[in-house]
Write a structure and sequence with these properties.
The complex is a heterotrimer of chains A (132), B (126) and C (343). Chain A contains 5 helices and no strands. By secondary structure, chain A is mainly α. The longest helix of chain A has 34 residues, at 63-96. Chain B has 126 residues and is an all-alpha fold. Chain B has a domain at 4-90. In chain B, helix 1 packs antiparallel against helix 2 and helix 2 runs antiparallel to helix 3. Chain B is elongated. Chain C has 343 residues and is mostly helical. Chain C has 3 domains: 7-85; 90-116; 149-185 and 200-343, no CATH class. Chain C contains 13 helices and no strands. Chain C has helices at residues 9-28, 32-52, 56-77, 90-113, 126-143, 148-156, 158-179, 201-223, 232-249, 252-258, 261-284, 295-299, 303-335. The chains are: A mainly alpha (132), B mainly alpha (126), C mainly alpha (343). Chains in contact: A-B, A-C, B-C. Chains B and C meet through helix 1, helix 2 and helix 3 of B and helix 1, helix 2, helix 3, helix 8 and helix 9 of C.
């Protein structure tokens, strides 16, 4: 009974983090912030989901269950190493590809920074003060 | 306590959120945004496979494919990131290695190098 | 802890909607690279669909080949081609519209032909009444292999798997013949790329920790194909993917120093040789080609254990070939044939 409640709590927490990840990926204005949302939130929510699965499988302490739970633990370790590395590779590629930053002035309409930043967004160059 | 409806609801919720992530794949302004969305979809698919295994009661059968899936998703993301690092570097202006055989046909226009040399860091907006 | 394993219709509908969105997006995007990546996403989703339908070996193969290797090969090849779809001149647009009309007519004809196929999971379909009960009931008793899929692939339908290995070998040979150049003198400039200078510590560390485990896992998948989903093909793909990961995280030369080109080609050929050689050995001992029971006297075991060992040996052959073919395809396609710099 207690283990069931624990499984439910862990999995629902994972789902909450995944909702945060999705909202971040859809709503953030900039490539770099989206990568933050995707990399961190995705890894954590996957770890929590698989942790809940491990707790569920370990409810009966048979040898098969321990073996399966051990393999799932290996998957959790692997995702904990590989997913942040993939995030690092993506954001490194974006940086070298010179994806433009979002700045606050590019978001307001009708201000003076608007045309300069629009042009920068189109050409893919950084804003002037961020070059170099 | 029967946890099957809970796991079914969890699987459907994850799938629905993956559908929302597909918005980033479809509408990402740059190509790397799409790569980001595909990475998230790939990692969540491993979770979904484990959940399917739990719902059907045979997790042992699905563990191997889960690990293989996670491994291969990582390779796909890395390859795409490396690719974009590669094409972001501008081509050198002097083709020192460009020796064409005397028996070659009409000049093949190099479609990538002139564009890249004249416009370094051009953002790809498909 | 087994519940009633019924397929969830909510799951199916959501995954199918996502697959349709991915497919339409892959067609509608203008850049070829984006289409390649979205096709990778489509492969992930169809693998999920097959897992849900309990076809785990197929899902495994799709995940390995469609999701990872196809996307890496697309990306490696696309360094050399014009990546933007340009507008066609008017005379080519007419041909494209004609092709569209022909395609739609063929699609309609094929879809109407599927009405004659048996229903999904129909117990009275010809395959389920004549073939499947035989394999399911007699498979374990005749071949001592709990995984019926592996038994069918490598024993009952061994010819098909052998020709699969031959086709994969031929693909590697074709790519090598078409692309491989040894001297720079006759090379037209396709794409000038500066050499990669910096070495990324994070990727190197990840590669050092992941690749040995990945290779052991690939061997596990290969040898455990008798008992769990897997087998030679999937194990070989994962093993080859570990070398591709090495080339991605470091450098193509780094990976080539560890798995040289001539050794790759030897492995491609030896796997097929092993498979066909076992078949020929069975033929020479008086049985059918690929009739593994002929090896019973040679190995000193009973007939069904000989079949089990025969299945293991041919799976090893398939695994060696597939591993070497994946590595060879990556070497040739990602470097444009000159094996200097990969992705």
């Amino acid at each position: 009974m207690i283990s069931d409640i624990l499984v439910i709590i862990v999995m629902v927490t994972g789902l909450l983090f995944f909702v945060a990840t999705t909202v971040g990926i859809i709503r953030f204005p900039d490539f770099y912030s989206r990568v933050h949302a995707a990399g961190k939130g995705d890894t954590l929510s996957t770890t929590l989901f698989l942790g809940g699965a491990i707790l569920f499988i370990m409810r009966d302490f048979s040898w098969d269950a321990m073996l399966t739970a051990g393999k799932l633990l290996l998957i959790v370790f692997y995702i904990f190493i590989a997913s942040p590395t993939a995030t690092h590779a993506i954001i490194d590629a974006g940086y070298e590809f010179r994806v433009p930053y979002w700045t606050r002035s590019s978001d307001k309409k009708g201000t003076e920074g608007d045309e300069a930043n629009e042009e920068n967004m189109d050409n893919g160059f950084y804003p002037e003060d961020l070059k170099g | 306590m029967n946890l099957e409806p809970f796991f079914i609801a969890m699987a459907v919720a994850i799938l629905f959120l993956m559908l929302c992530n597909l918005y980033r794949v479809v509408a990402g302004p740059t190509v790397i945004d799409r790569m980001l969305g595909v990475n998230v979809i790939g990692i969540k698919t491993t979770v979904l496979i484990v959940l399917i295994g739990i719902i059907d009661g045979r997790v042992e059968m699905f563990i191997d494919i889960t690990l293989a899936y996670a491994l291969l998703n990582f390779i796909t993301t890395l390859a795409a990131a490396r690719f974009y690092q590669r094409i972001s570097q501008p081509a050198p202006s002097e083709p020192e290695e460009a020796l064409v055989a005397p028996s070659a046909g009409p000049e093949v226009e190099d479609v990538d190098a002139p564009e890249a040399a004249s416009d370094p860091g051009r953002k790809e907006t498909p | 802890m087994t519940w009633d394993a019924s397929l969830l219709w909510q799951f199916d509908i959501l995954v199918l909607v996502m697959m349709v969105i991915c497919a339409v997006t892959a067609l509608a995007l203008q850049g070829l690279l984006s289409s390649a990546i979205v096709t990778g996403a489509y492969s992930f989703l169809i693998c999920l669909m097959w897992t849900h339908m309990m076809a785990v070996d197929v899902a495994f193969t799709e995940a390995a080949v469609g999701a990872a290797i196809s996307t890496v090969i697309f990306l490696g090849t696309a360094q050399y081609i014009n990546r933007w779809i340009k507008k066609d001149p008017p005379r080519e647009q007419g041909i494209k519209q004609l092709t569209l009309v022909i395609g739609v007519i063929c699609a309609v004809m094929m879809l109407s032909a599927t009405r004659d196929l048996p229903d999904w999971a129909d117990p009275a379909s010809p395959a389920s009444t004549h073939l499947s009960p035989g394999y399911i009931e007699q498979g374990y008793h005749e071949t001592a292999t709990p995984n019926v899929v592996t038994a069918v692939l490598a024993d009952y339908r061994g010819y098909d798997t052998m020709f699969e290995a031959v086709v994969v070998f031929a693909a590697a040979l074709v790519v090598m013949v078409l692309l491989r150049r040894t001297s720079h003198k006759h090379r037209k400039v396709l794409h000038l790329r500066p050499k990669r200078e910096g070495r990324d510590t994070v990727l190197r560390g990840a590669a050092q920790s992941i690749i040995p485990v990945m290779q052991i896992f690939a061997l596990y998948v290969l040898f455990h194909g008798h008992y769990s989903p897997g087998g030679g093909f999937q194990g070989g793909v994962i093993f080859g993917a570990s070398f591709i990961l090495l080339a991605l995280c470091y450098n193509l030369k780094f990976s080539m120093n560890r798995f040289r080109e001539h050794l790759v080609l030897w492995c491609c050929a030896c796997g097929v040789l092993l498979y066909a050689g076992i078949g020929a050995a069975c033929l020479g001992l008086g049985w059918n080609f690929l009739g593994y029971a002929a090896l019973a006297d040679l190995l000193g075991v009973s007939g069904k254990m000989a079949r089990s060992y025969g299945i293991l040996a041919v799976e090893i052959g398939v695994g060696i070939t597939v591993m070497a073919v994946m590595v060879s395809l990556y070497y040739d396609l990602a470097s444009g044939g000159d094996l200097e710099e990969g992705l």
